[in-house]
């Protein structure tokens, strides 16, 4: 009898957890699709790994460009002071 009660409790908890996971999955999928579309990609044709590698490359290139622009601005300031 004790096993039966424990099993019922476990099944109920497992079912609730599975239902929550399903809701979370659907919400995550919708959010992912929205983000992919925002960046001009087709979520049906773009794998997550491909999208995130593109996004990562963009972020790295952007950081590099910021550093290059800062170095160039400092060079211009140094040249202006030397004139």
List its salient traits.
elongated, 83 residues, 0% strand, mainly alpha, 2 domains, single chain
Question: Short summary of the structure?
Answer:
The chain has 83 residues and is an all-alpha fold.
Number of strands: 0
What string gives the helices and strands in order?
Answer: HH
- The overall number of domains is 2
Structural class by SSE content: mainly alpha
Number of helical regions? 2
Describe the secondary-structure layout:
Blueprint: H1 2-38, H2 48-82
Structure description:
With 83 residues, the protein is an all-alpha fold. It has helices at 2-38, 48-82. The protein starts with a helix and ends with a helix.
């Amino acid at each position: 009898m004790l096993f039966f009660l424990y099993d019922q409790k476990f099944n109920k908890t497992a079912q609730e957890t599975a239902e929550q996971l399903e809701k979370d999955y659907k919400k995550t999928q919708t959010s992912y699709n929205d983000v992919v579309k925002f960046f001009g990609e087709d979520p049906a044709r773009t794998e997550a790994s491909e999208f995130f590698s593109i996004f990562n490359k963009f972020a790295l290139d952007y950081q590099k460009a910021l550093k290059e622009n800062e170095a160039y601005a400092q060079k211009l300031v140094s040249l202006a002071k030397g004139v």
